[in-house]
Amino acid sequence: MLVALSLLRELGPVVAALLFAGRAGSALTAEIGLMRATEQLSSMEMMAVDPLRRVISPRFWAGVISLPLLTIIFVAVGIWGGSLVGVSWKGIDAGFFWSAMQNAVDWRMDLVNCLIKSVVFAITVTWIALFNGYDAIPTSAGISRGNDAYRGSRIVGRSGAGFCADRTDVWELSSCKRKKMKFG
Question: I need a labelling partner for 20 at 20 to 30 A (CA). Which of 63, 71, 109, 115 fits?
Answer without folding.
Answer: 109
